[in-house]
Amino acid sequence: MGTLATEPALTRPDLLADPVIAALTDRPELAAEALVAPIDPELADTAAFCAAYQVGLEISANCVVVVGKRGGEPMYAACLVLATTRADVNGVVRRHLGARKASFAGMDDAVARTGMEYGGITPVGLPSDWPVLVDQRVADAEYAVVGSGVRRSKLAVPGRLLAALPAAEVLDLALPTS
């Protein structure tokens, strides 16, 4: 995990958003293996983070909030993909949600609905009624480095535990980045 100085996540609640603390507290099997590392919040964005902390893009995962619309009603979901790929929002995700249209949620909307900071949104602690669409590559990762709910730290979580989150569904939902 590059130069990250990790420790058990619940030993550092100061590095976690409140919804993340609650989710880890409710899931001892997740808390037992989830690690947290402090980072410079100015380096929270994927490319800068990976370069500064020598974390490979192949283990860094992005969590994006997507909103689908069907019959005028919005449906929210999270997509978790490796940094080497991007979520197929207009194809796989839209069809999986049964939506006529799907797009990335706006920053203010995503922050308000998750209780997390933009650039730190993580699948751990999302609203319980949201599907969490986990790309197969993330599920297969020994560890994936994801947001912690705040920009000043990152979580490292085994892929199998991300795939086992409540409402998680493992799909092949990524397109290669180019």
UniProtKB/TrEMBL annotation:
InterPro entries assigned: YbaK/aa-tRNA-synt-asso_dom_sf, YbaK/aa-tRNA-synth-assoc-dom
Extent of the signal sequence: none
The segment(s) forming the YbaK/aminoacyl-tRNA synthetase-associated domain are 41-160
- Any one GO molecular function term: aminoacyl-tRNA deacylase activity
Name of the featured protein: YbaK/EbsC family protein
Lineage, highest ranks first:
Bacteria, Bacillati, Actinomycetota, Actinomycetes, Micromonosporales
